[in-house]
Amino acid sequence: MEFIENIRIAFTSLFANKMRSLLTMLGIIIGISAVIMITTIGSSIQKTLTNTFSSIGQFNYFTAFLSITEEDVAITQDDFISRDMLDELVEKYPDYFTPDLSQDFGQATTRNYKGQTVTMTLNGLLSSEPMNDHLRGRTISYEDSTRRKNAIYVSDLFVRQYFPPGTDPIGQTVNLTLEDGVSADFVIVGYDKLPKIYEKMFDPGTKEIDKVSPAAVPLDTMLNLEHQELKNNYYATIYYNLDYDAAMQQEVLQEFFDDKYAEKKGIQVFVQNVQDEIKIINAVISVITIAISIIAAISLIVGGVGVMNIMLVSITERTKEIGIRKALGAQNDSIRMQFVIEAIMLCLIGGIIGILLGIIGGMAIGWIAKLFVEHFYAEYAELIAIIIQPSIPAIVISVLFSILTGVFFGYYPANKAAKMNPIDALRYD
User: Fold this and answer.
1) Coil, strand, or helix at residue 100?
2) Is residue 249 located within the same domain as residue 286?
3) 3-state secondary structure at position 266
4) Residue 286: is it exposed, middle or buried by C-beta count within 10 angstroms (0-12/13-18/19+)?
């Protein structure tokens, strides 16, 4: 009951001096709102980056690339990452890795059910991942390539261009004419929604039938049709299994290439995880956000000093009140608690106002950023999905920090009030 009564007294005192209380809270409001605004912007940028990368495609792969570690080392074709290495990798770790090499085979044409020409770009792959999360059927597999199957993985754009509405394309055969005039039948094994980034490559106003969509075909199949040989590469894309720990798989893959290049002086293959790069970007944003937030939080010290100052003034004004309470039997702890709670309420109210202003400010900046993107980068507006996400941990910390500020800067004045001599307090004029 005493605690509730102290809260009531605190509110009565604050509302009795509204303007003074508001000016005292100003430092707390500015500090907290700045911190919330900055953390909101930081977390929103991280969420926007993650969603933007996700909309572009899948990122569960490693990039293995050749690097020179010593000067005056000449690299030959025999030093590059070979197909035999990748075949050995799959044979040794069938549950972990699906390597991929790619080669562009130009455009291919076919005629749809209306007799119209449909054009696509063919990308020969050892294996492929889904374009996004709307896969129907399957993608090109490593087995499709090694067995030289005439499989093809297309986009929903090609499905709309080639088939009558409502047709299930999976299992359907498409006859393609390659750039050198070679004609071959391919069976559609899967299709997916065309990523937005491809849509942005088309000129505005391009008719759907005239759009050139991408398609994936087995690499070995295309090399056989074109009578070409695969050259060794300085890098390779290697998809990893999401059912296992990515860091463990990266370590295994690095050890595999280290063993392969152990006798090649000055040449090494480095394995890099694309997800790690995204995490590094997010980590940098977090560090910058925290650093700026700490700078902004310095104003809370100024606000805390203001709270201490106003509490000392308040105690001086209420000296006689303190004397009366002590004369009636109030204990020192009771007097101390009264003024500490008053300081806490002052900071807590200021903190809540600061949090609300910070969230509103962060949302306003996000809205301005969205308008900026739509106005100056309209072609990428659909890809850059700006998401405003207030930082919940920052809000919780801000509330706790407001309470601690009240305790820290309110304790000295409250302790001073508690130690007053009741006779001296009653004589105070």
Assistant:
1) strand
2) no
3) coil
4) middle
Same domain, 261 and 401: no
Q: Are residues 260 and 373 in the same domain?
A: no
Question: Distance (Å, rounded) from C-alpha 248 to C-alpha 408?
Answer: 47
Same domain, yes or no, for 330 and 238? no
Provide the residue count of the chain. Answer: 429
What is the number of structural domains in the chain? Answer: 2
Show which of 233, 253, 273 is a domain's final residue: 273
- Encoding tokens for residue 148? 């030289």
121 and 93 together in one domain: yes
Within 10 angstroms of residue 45's Cβ, the number of other Cβ atoms is 21
- 112, 208 in Cβ contact below 8 A? no
The DSSP annotation for 206-250 comes to --GGG--EEEEEEHHHHHHHTT--PPPBSEEEEEE-TTS-HHHHH
Q: Are 424 and 323 in contact (CB under 8 A)?
A: yes
**What is the residue-wise DSSP string for 131-194?**
SSS--EE----HHHHHTT--EEEEEHHHHHHHSPTT---TT-EEEEE-TTS-EEEEEEEEEEPP
Question: What does the DSSP 8-state code read for residue 122?
Answer: E
Please indicate, yes or no, whether residues 262 and 290 belong to a single structural domain of this protein.
Answer: no
The CA radius of gyration of the chain, in Å to the nearest whole number, is: 34
Q: How far apart are CA 95 and CA 244, in angstroms?
A: 9
Per residue in 298-341, pLDDT (tens digit) is 777 777 777 777 777 777 766 777 777 777 776 777 777 777 88
- State whether 266 and 291 are in the same domain: no
Residues facing 110 on adjacent strands? 118
Q: Which of 229, 250, 273 is the last residue of a domain?
A: 273
What is the domain range of residue 22?
2-55+279-427
Question: What type of residue is 39?
Answer: T
Q: Are residues 352 and 257 in the same domain?
A: no
- Looking only at the bridges linking them, the beta strands covering 151-155 and 183-192 are parallel
What's the predicted TM-score (pTM) here?
0.54
What is the token pair recorded at 153? 């993985």
* Residue 239 token pair: 């998809």
d(CA 107, CA 202): 16
* Ramachandran class of 148: left when φ > 0, alpha when ψ lies in -120 to 50, beta otherwise: left
Token output for 44: 């929103």
Q: What's the pLDDT tens digit per position in 232-259? A: 666 778 888 888 888 888 888 888 888 8
β-strand 136-137 against 173-177: which pairing, if any? unpaired
Return the number of other C-beta atoms located less than 10 Å from residue 419's C-beta.
10
